[in-house]
Amino acid sequence: MIKNPSLGSAPAAFAAFGPYCSDTPDYDGIREILQGSVPFNNHAGLLILETAPTRGVVEVPDSPHLLNGARTVHAGALFLASDMAGSAAFLGALAPVLDTIENDGQLMRVSIRSTTAPEVC
Asked: Which of 14, 21, 73, 120 has its CB 3.0 to 4.6 Å from that of 95, i.e. a possible disulfide?
């Protein structure tokens, strides 16, 4: 089990977010860590532009290697962008209230420290 604020004993993928999650999260820090946490995202050249309590914004570059035969953005690049934007929004929403992360290798449990999570709708 990992307890905030350090999340120090977390698996490496989650421990890096600990210093940025608090009552006053560092959303730019979360965005920077997330940007480097998925090697395929960097390989494709996608940029996470924003991590916030209510959204995540990702830019898909205008690059020939991301196009399909019809010269439009390949569905794989679009799915990657939506996955990264969803991750950014999820982390942004949880950052102010993240309490524990448990990972037993098969199942991950995330708990929050209050019942007043940020309103996201």
From this structure: 21
